[in-house]
Amino acid sequence: MESKRTGQITGKYGLRLFTAIFLTVVLWLFGAHTCAYGAQNINISIAAGFDGKCRLGGVNPVAVSVEGTGEDWEGTLTVVAEGRNYSHGIKIPKYCRKSFVFSIPFFKADSKISAGLESGGKAVAGADFSPEMLPENSVLIGILSDTPETFAYAAGIDLDALGGKKAHVVRLDKDFAYSGEELENFNFILVDDFDGTDLAAESGKTLERWIRRGNCLLVGAGQYAYKNMKGLFEDLTGPRSVGDGVIVPVPEGLENKTPEFVEEVLQKYATPYGISKIVGESGLTRQLREVEKLYPASDGRLRPTADALFFLLSLLALYLLAAGTALCLDKKLHWLFSAVVAGFCGIFYIAALWGGVQDTSAAAAAVKIHEKGNTSRRYTLTGVYPRGEGKISLKWPEASFLCNCGQDQGVEDPLEMESGFAGKGPHYAYGMGLEPSEAAVFKLDLDQGEVLTGKIKNPLPYKLCQCFLLLGDTVISLGDLEGREEVRVKYRLDHNLRSLSEYNFLDTISRTARMEEGQQLLFEHYYYGLEDGAPGGRLLGFADGTERVQVDGRARSIRSTVLHVFPAELNAPEGEVYFPCGYIAPVPDPGENTAPAGKKEYLPGQGEELPVYYVLPPDIRAEEIQFYGVPEKGAGTLEVFDRKQGSWRELEGNSLSGDSLDRCTAGGPLKIRITGASRVILPDISLKGAYDPKGEKGTAGGQS
Amino acid sequence: MKRVYLKRAAVFMAAVLTAVSINGCTGGEPRTVSNMDKAGETAAAGVITAGETTAAAALSESGISTEDTSGPGQQSTGTGEGAGLSGGSPDSSAGWNAGEGTGKGSAAGKKEGGDASAAGSPYKGYKGPVQGEIKYQEGRPAGENSKEYKASGDIESPYHVDLIVTRDYGHKNIFAKNVGLVRDEVGMEVMFRNLDIQTAYGGGFVNAINGLESGYTFFTGKDRKKLDWFYWVNGILAPIGVAEYKPQPGDVIWWDYHDWSLTMFVPAVIGSYPQPFKSGFMGKNPGTVIMYTEDTKEDAQKLKESLTAQGVKQVDTAAYNPGIIRAPKKYYILLGVWDELSQNNEDLKDINAKNKLVGVYAKFEDRKLQALNFKGKAISTYDHSGAVYAYGASIGSINPIWLVTGTDLQGYRLAIDTLLNNPKALTGCFGAVVTEEGVTNIPYGE
Predict the structure, then answer these.
(1) pLDDT for A215-248, tens place per residue?
(2) Which residues in chain B have their CB less than 8 angstroms from residue A479's CB?
(3) Which residues pair with A404 in a beta bridge?
């Protein structure tokens, strides 16, 4: 008995001992395996920005290289910058090196970037990097050349007449693997001694889109012309307008020049968008600041539609009818009542599962800007409204940039264009993407009597609501436009927006177009966050539709409302040009002290100066410029900058013409300054002149 | 027992509300669009005339008067969070005027600020911040905590604020003085220099001013009364504690001690006119829009000119839009007869119906104006009279809407004439009823 008991005890102990040893060995092996990765099998290195320089208020590349040295490795690569977590799942085969480039926005001057590798919840390797942070409104020049050292002079470029900003120069990688958002950090790109065919097709498209957006590229047409003038720069016989930007061939070449030489060219071909990038805050900063005001527009799309309500009401009526009929039947058939109730319960249950009644809701509000060309830029705010507080992800595969809004501390995957959220919602993500566009530029005629004529066609196959045309200081309501519908315009400009304050300007547009609240928010987001001052008119209209995204890995079609913006231009009959008041937008340079009170309004203190630029199209010879909204005597002064004399003089008679005008526009944009007024509403200008493609600034190389 | 729980619940609610407010709430012939008809020119068939396509007439805006608000230099007083004030329980930050007692501008700051009167400083008599020095024992009876904290005295400074102390909804004046301000200091410092202050709930809550003590904080049972200090900056109920609020030169800081048994918060008052239109709140001014009805367009222009002359930099006029009440982005002043303003405006009707619950003490009913007391009881009823009062959606709503209205055009005229020609009559009023006899501050007290 005793021995039997002993034997039983021994058996139990044996089993326990075996289990303990087994677990110990397994844990030791697992631990040793993990340690081995951390200690030996994986290496990580990090670099960020352009030549180590990152631009504040911009999206910068953060390149992390991971090298497997022993065995295949699988885990998570995490980058932490400015308190935000960016993460991506990776697999590294043994003896392989892979580079992962995260496009990350930076806003803080003291940003430090940390990269780490994790596997099984354990950190196995890490690296830090502290890039040089360039101020938001600095001048960043990119050099694309096989011999970048010959551009050393560029560091001395001091664009005094464009805000007095010292330039920072970086060499661009030859493979040019930059995203559109990253390239937006550059104010100018200089190309010389560079084989244009070296650019991959996709890189060439990215560069072209950068120019089309409103940027300026100089290309040497001197000794290396045979090498440079290929691909995108082929057949350049003079400056060529591309979209809202310009490519300028420099016959003297760009190598070993003086800073003054390039400064002169850059000022001469500055674009409104280019100047606003130098003197103002970055587009991304503006957008992310403004996007929070857009939340209600996204939230508004969650409301049930009239169709859904009618469907549910008809289902209810059908149910009551069927149940009532079943009750009225013979007693023996009363089981039919139960069957009807059970049947409808089943229908609702299936509908709930299929329609995601208990699922996370999502909705979007977007602005789609159709560019001159066949592309459009889409800026989308997506709201995610989870039922609970768990983790949730949103993926927008077509985006080129996606980030969480506000203080949402989720994890983002910039490579998969996925945003992760945690906690109670709603959560919001803001993304940008490029899409093909069918839209063409609307061409309208305007005679000297300010009668606007032409045809405007909805280029989209679906209805656009509350359409309106913004042309200078006039807003014209067009009502709803069915898909492909054409409307003929014959309208004398009534300047209903002239010299209005910011509030009255937006209020008048909103009332004229009869916008609803969500539409108004979208328009304001466009106006404050995306509108970039390129000359010309705009056709705007709203469309309700659906958006394809992935929520928690599941493809979803979510409801969205979109503001479409199309460019509109004026024809120049017989070479004569008349741009009405407001057609050429002012670009203010408020500096650090002048308080902006909106986009059109500023509140400079007593004696403070507010410089304002007006960029005339390069292929126009201005003959007369009229100013509107000039401060009254005693309230302030308006001075114009005489570029030939390099001095300021007070504007006389509210207009400039002839030699007086030439002196102010020679070699750069028209520059004025307003002094001494407590509230400044930016003056607008009208222009009379002639189309002059071969003039001083003419784009003889043609337009595309 | 139940009453105690109810009171605790009320305090908790106030804490939650305060915390929330602190933390942030094709085919065929195309149709033609044209305005050529109005110019007498012939347009194609299907013309949409300008009347349909364009909105209100353009309003020409011009520059406004100048004012120099800048001063000669600044001095930082050291606002590190170093000092450890004895902390209260989590719900003890529940105070009508309290944020969390962070002790900014504390003892550490004092060391740095100790030589503030030295050469080069723009301030005379300034001894540095004192907030961190104030100690009190949490949870002790009122008597033990009622040690007098004497005002340390005003300073000479190039910057000033108006400090006003009243009780019973502005009906009794206690203190009113234009006092010196140190740039970047918190409001509590201004209080300590000029008034005898006792704090509670971690130091961020003003429990007593010049001996007039909260009837709630340190009392229990029958002795406990819903009487407390509240403060407004430029006529806007501050959504943060005075220990966090940094006054701007020119601000009007108004403290009032009153019964809050029925009205938890009065989000906006008119007695600091032309504030908030002139200076905004916490240095931010969204701009002012005067909205007019058909009969009041000229008044809107006159009021704009009047405000401009008083130093308001950014003021616009626009036709009345009832939609602005729900989420005001600007400061709005609505001008018009009550029936016109409230027509098709359910929000305004709702405010009128809730009146005292949302801090409004003028009620329009059957073309008559009722002036209410703080409990919402109609004390006087008037024909042909006007009212000037402010409304804010909630505590934390820092964009108030002002109404200048009346039972009829005659009553409205009384109100607008007061605002245009005799604005001083409104000074110190929470809201105002304007009759032929003059201006009456509402709500009435006991």
Answers:
(1) 999 999 988 888 888 888 888 888 888 888 999 9
(2) 33, 48
(3) A429
Query: Please, which residues have CB within 8 angstroms of residue B349's CB and are 6 or more apart in sequence?
Result: B342
* Nearest of B392, B404, B270 to residue B337 by alpha carbon: B404
In tens, the pLDDT along B342-395 reads 998 999 999 999 999 999 999 999 999 999 999 999 999 999 999 999 999 877
Query: What fold characterizes domain A135-280?
Result: Rossmann fold (3.40.50)
- Packed helices A517-525 and A502-513: angle between N→C axes, nearest 10 degrees: 130
Structure tokens of A667? 């070699």
Chain segment A428-454, per-residue pLDDT in tens: 999 999 988 877 788 999 988 899 999
| Distance, CA of B172 to CA of B255 (rounded, Å) | 12
Label the pairing between strands A537-551 and A554-570: antiparallel
Of B26, B60, B287, the CB nearest to A484: B26
pLDDT for res A329: 79
Rounded Cα distance between A274 and A536, Å, is 16
Interface of A with B in 671-700 (CB under 8 A): 676-681
Task: Enumerate the CATH 2.60.40.10 domain ranges in chain A, comma separated.
Answer: 42-131
Give contacts of B330 with chain A, Cβ < 8 Å: 503
A492 touches B: beta carbon within 8 Å: yes
Locate CATH 3.40.50 in chain A. Answer: 135-280
Q: Is A37 exposed, middle or buried (0-12, 13-18, 19+ CB in 10 A)?
A: buried
Per-residue pLDDT of A297-316, as tens digits, reads 988 877 766 777 788 888 88
CA distances from B162 to A279, A526, B187, B194 (A): 38, 41, 12, 11
Q: CA–CA separation, B123 vs A31, rounded Å?
A: 66
**Given an 8 Å threshold on Cβ–Cβ distance, is A491 in contact with B34?**
yes
Q: Which two tokens stand for residue B187?
A: 């409001």
Distance CA B311, CA A678 (A): 10
Give the Cβ contact number of residue A265 at 10 Å.
Answer: 20
A583-691: CATH number: 2.60.120
Q: How far is A368 from chain B (nearest CA, A)?
A: 23
Q: What is the pLDDT of residue B65?
A: 29
Of B53, B316, B321, the CB nearest to A477: B53
- ipTM associated with this complex: 0.77
Q: Which of A484, A490, A632 lies nearest to residue B44, judging by beta carbons?
A: A490
pLDDT at B139 over 90: no
Domains and CATH numbers, chain B: 90-259 (2.170.130.30), 288-442 (3.30.379)
CATH, range A42-131: 2.60.40.10
The token pair at A443 is 């061409």
Q: Are A263 and A158 in contact (CB under 8 A)?
A: yes
Query: Which among B34, B61, B323 has CB closest to A501?
Result: B61
Write out residues 434-473 of A within 8 Å (CB-CB) of B.
451, 455
Identity of the residue numbered A242: V
Q: For strand A139-144 and strand A158-159, is the pairing parallel, antiparallel, or unpaired?
A: unpaired
CA distances (Å), origin B301, targets B60, B203, B316: 11, 46, 9
Q: Which tokens in the block code for residue A407?
A: 């203080």
Peptide bond into A669 cis (omega under 30): no
CB contact under 8 A, A478 and B33: yes
What does the DSSP assignment read for A531-563? ----SSEEEEEEEEEEEEEEETTEEEEEEEEEE
Using DSSP's 3-state secondary structure scheme, residue A260 falls into: helix
Supply the pLDDT for residue A442: 87
* CB atoms inside a 10 Å sphere around CB B250: 18
Ramachandran angles phi, psi of A48, nearest 5°: -140, 155
Is the CB of residue A482 less than 8 Å away from at least one CB of chain B?
yes
A118 DSSP β-pair partners: A76, A123
Strand partners, A60: A104
